[in-house]
Amino acid sequence: RADYIKAVWNIANWQNVAERLTAARTKTEGLLVLS
Fold this sequence. Notes:
Blueprint lengths: L1 H26 L8
Protein name: Fe-Mn family superoxide dismutase
Organism: Herbiconiux oxytropis
């Protein structure tokens, strides 16, 4: 059961990372060149 909870948090955390990365790219469009 602990593994299940850990897996859920891992998914949630990566979704948050992806959302923040997308927001950062949008806000800094033209300032950063990301490959």
